Amino acid sequence: MAAADDPVPAPRTPRPGGSEQTPVVQPRARIVLAEVSRREDRAERTRAELAQQTRVGDALVRGLVRAQFALALRLSLVVAIGLGGLPWLFAVAPAVGRVTVLGVNLPWLLLGVVSFPFLIAVGWAYVRLAERNEQDFTDLVQRPER
After folding, report:
1. Residues 6 or more apart from 125 whose CB is under 8 A from it?
2. pTM over 0.90
3. Which of 4, 20, 32, 75 has the fewest CB atoms within 10 Å, i.e. is most exposed?
4. What is the 3-state secondary structure (H, E, C) of the chain?
């Protein structure tokens, strides 16, 4: 029986005329953490669910569409109140409708000049917020599993 302090024997060297063969040296294997591969697998699985239109992929896409639709409704409400409220304002307060600025009646000025920058600002806000919704969706699809 070998004691714990005994040295480990060295590997045998082949003899010139001997029957022993030289041992084959295997290349080193690289070990990768399983957690890293699981993250990539999850992202790939989610992309596959989107591409194959499974129930999970369908639910993700419906969530994105619902968010975009809610954004469109909110901003169209802003436009409806902003521009649609002007005739109501002039009907409730006729004195406001008779005001002139630089020789132009205020209703014409508001509807003909001010409405365009207002619509451009709402359009810019919509594009910016819609892209943020899409980026959130992309982050959701590609985020690693926690």
Report:
1. 75
2. no
3. 4
4. CCCCCCCCCCCCCCCCCCCCCCCCCCCCCCCCCHHHHHHHHHHHHHHHHHHHCCHHHHHHHHHHHHHHHHHHHHHHHHHHHHHHHHHHHHHHCHHHHCCEECCEEHHHHHHHHHHHHHHHHHHHHHHHHHHHHHHHHHHHHHCCCC
Distance between CA 90 and CA 96 in Å, rounded? 6
Q: Specify the pairing of strand 104-105 against strand 100-101.
A: antiparallel
Rounded to the nearest 5 degrees, what angle is found at the Cα of 63, between the Cα atoms of 58 and 66? Answer: 120
Report pLDDT digits (tens) over 84-140: 888 888 888 888 777 788 887 777 888 888 889 999 999 999 999 999 998 888 887
The residue whose two tokens read 């002007």 is 86
Cα(142)–Cα(99) distance, integer angstroms: 56
